[in-house]
Structures are given as C-alpha cells and as structure tokens.
Design brief:
Elements: E1 8-9, H1 10-16, H2 22-30, E2 34-36, E3 39-40, E4 46-47, E5 53-55, E6 58-59, H3 62-65, E7 72-77, E8 107-109, E9 118-123
Antiparallel strand pairs: 1-4, 2-3, 2-5, 5-6, 7-9, 8-9
Length: 128
C-alpha cells in the first residue's frame, strides 16, 4: 500500500511557521522572496514536509515547518511606543520589548495609536 503525502498551500505553511499572515506571505511569494526546491514559488502552490523551502535565501528548518506550539502573549503598551516592526524614527516599538522566539516571529493582533496605552495581544500563529 502506497503512503499518501500530505500537502498544504505554501502560504499556510509559512503562516503556521510564524512568518506572517497568509495575505502578507502571498505578496512575498509574488515578489519572488520564496523558493521551493530551488525554484521560484508561486502563490497557491502545495508543499509537503519533503520540500526544501527558502525565504530570502534562508532555508526553513524541519522544526519551523513542523507543528509548533501556539503562543499568545498579552502586553501593556505605554504611550510613546509604536505598534510597527518598521522603525521610521528613534521611538521604541512594542516589538522591542517582547521575548525572543526560537522560531517564527510575534504577530500583533490589532494595534493602538502612538498616544494610547492599553492591552495588546501577540501570537506566533499566523492563522489565529
């Protein structure tokens, strides 16, 4: 009996690994930032655990592609912090204060304005 290989869409695999939202990753794929088995990836292509995936030239490890524990973090944003990964000024970002993840990255669930303070949620699961 032949064993069936389980596949899923590339952007879903990358989102599960914590690289960002599926829509954001679709833009990365379209821009040519993602390769599968050495070839430029296409939006919607299906991948399996046997494929070699690279993002910006960096190979994703087997652990990053495996099912990772979903983490959710609550954070109290203070006035003056910005809710962006992009650093356009010397202002601190909320991401500067978050703990480092071994794989993937923190994704903000919502945002607050520069002059606001309050609760923010972060997750490492792009599907959440």
């Amino acid at each position: 009996m032949k064993k069936e290989v389980v596949t899923e869409k590339l952007q879903k695999t990358l989102a599960r690994a914590g690289y960002g939202s599926r829509r954001e990753l679709e833009r990365w794929i379209a821009a040519g930032r993602v390769r599968v088995n050495g070839a430029r990836a296409t939006v919607g292509m299906r991948v399996s655990s046997h494929d070699v995936i690279q993002v910006d030239g960096q190979r994703l490890g087997r652990r990053a592609l495996g099912r990772q524990r979903v983490r959710v973090l609550r954070y109290h944003k203070t006035v003056g912090e910005i809710c962006s990964r992009r650093r356009d000024s010397d202002r601190p970002t909320v991401f500067d204060s978050l703990p480092t993840l071994k794989s993937g990255r923190w994704i903000a669930v919502g945002r607050l304005d520069l002059n606001s303070s309050g609760l923010l949620l972060f997750t490492n699961d792009g599907e959440l």
